[in-house]
Amino acid sequence: MVYLRPSRVLLLGLSLSTSCVVGGSIQKNDLSLPADAQTNRDRVKDIFTTSYDAYKKYAFGHDDLKPLSKSFTDSRNGWGASIVDAMSTMWVMGLTDDLNEAIEFASKIDFSKSNTQDNVSVFESTIRYIGGLLSTYELTGNQNQALVDKAKQLADKLSQAWVGGSDIPYGHIDFASNTPAKANSNIAEAGTLTMEWWALSKYTGDPKYVQLAEKSAKRVANNNAPLPGLPGQVIDPSTGNPVGGYVTWGGGSDSYFEYLIKYPRLTNTDDDFWSNTWRTAVDSSINNLLSVSDVGNHVYLADYDSNGRLHHVGSHLACFHGGNWIMGGKLTNNDTIFNHGLDLVEACWNTYSSTATGIGPEAFAWKSSGDNGDFTGSNNPTALQEAFYVQHGFYPTSSYYILRPEVLESNFYAWRATGDSKYLDRAAQAISSFEKYLKVDEGFAGLTNVNDNSGNGTKVDDMESFWFAEVLKYLYLTFDDPKHVSLDEYVFNTEAHPFKAPSVKHNYGTGIDQNTPTPQPTETTPTTSTEDSEATAPTASQSVPSLTDSLGDGLGLGRNMAKLFRKDM
Ligand SMILES: *[C@@H]1O[C@H](CO)[C@@H](O)[C@H](O)[C@H]1NC(C)=O
Ligand SMILES: *[C@@H]1O[C@H](CO)[C@@H](O)[C@H](O)[C@H]1NC(C)=O
Ligand SMILES: *[C@@H]1O[C@H](CO)[C@@H](O)[C@H](O)[C@H]1NC(C)=O
Fold first, then answer.
1. H-assigned helices in 434-551
2. pLDDT at position 13 over 70
3. Is 391 helix (H, G, I), strand (E, B) or coil?
4. Of residues 124, 214, 362, 464, which has the active-site annotation?
5. Most CB contacts within 10 A, which of 38, 101, 180, 282?
6. pLDDT at 379
């Protein structure tokens, strides 16, 4: 093991006046790129410009390119999601002309009404539009005030999803009537707003945005949970209470956990609640969800149902967890968490390296007799899946790939945190697979079956905006100067939009037992600016759940979840 354990000295509060931050840095010192990094960076940039040129030609101003039919679709209310989501990647890649054109476009979007019949998702609009607008505002030197104004226009509409002073916003609202759509929400939708709405409060000077976001995430964290720190996925916004108790790090829950550590890192808040809640969630996951496959000893996180049974199922979406544990393991100086993070990265990469195309499936399962639930439920493998499992230690249960980022995202964290060149090799292999199997006449398209490399496999006629925002940004940065958008200077929102963070603090949280006093530095942690003042904005106290009309139609899990549950192998 080459992982250095940062000195604990700072935790004892002995040298707080120093400006030299030791503990908690995420990136390994002195990372060096191999000679072929430039080539791989150029390959990624080519994929980006090819994709974006096709988007401009056939879909400009719409949300997604349909790369096969050379047309467009509006999956995010028709405000030009690909443009807004691509902006921060254009900045990273130095694509100035495209960026200026995109900023010009984004500055004029009318967020007062939806351009489609769809209701507006609070979560999706936050992570893609508000995240994209505010990140680009920062990256371009805080000059383009219109980007802040647009984010505010959208957030003011979205704010109406908190009905009658409730803690939890409805997942969707009808922009025409400003009424919430009647559906349950989930903890990802309710708990993935803090970073973006905090930034909006910072740039508008109005604390109401961060207050709404904080009270929602805090309510999720304070609700009764099936396992310590691990709330169930579904939540009723009319009461703020949980519905059922299905625990997963996958879609519908994922980025709630992600922001528990990213938000305190972004803000350097003195409120240990967030980091401690993250620590509790991770500790509880290690104790209850960690599952090792009988074949190959791959380390996964199982799901846990309301009957207390483990499900040995994983997903592309959940594969952000390795990177998140690497990040949080470093910030909390905890090698146990860090090393589990690396194990999760290994298992997720195995889902790529095991398929015929070298690209991983949407969802998969494994068998494990070593934990409390050898229950595989509806995922009992077919003969074909069994044969795959015996070779690879997992089997696909949904075999498509729709241009998702998570595996390469975690691979990027692993590279920057360890300096192990195997992560560069993997990223280069992914680029080759994309060039070989996703390239179409104009642009790039997903696959219906990642295990079909016959060249005749069917492609998916949709290029979602996260291809620009996430996949190509994380791939590019993997081969870029590690000081450029360093993980010690920026925090990525769940859509990979970078936000500038203050210097890494000496510690994040006091540990998993929130009642045990631990040596705390006196609260003089040096900060370089007033940047984190909003982080301590008072939060509305936990209000009594409002008893508006009861809901119950549908799970409100959104497109991603609907796709997640589709079985096709
Ligand atoms: C949008 O929400 C309204 C209010 O709940 C509902 O009546 C309508 O059916 C929804 N529209 C769509 C397209 O889901
Ligand atoms: C590191 O994290 C593990 C897992 O949550 C925990 O058991 C351990 O006590 C932590 N170590 C320290 C020094 O806090
Ligand atoms: C792909 O389809 C073509 C036309 O049907 C066929 O000739 C070819 O053998 C197929 N290639 C593979 C590798 O299956």
1. 466, 472-478
2. no
3. helix
4. 362
5. 282
6. 61
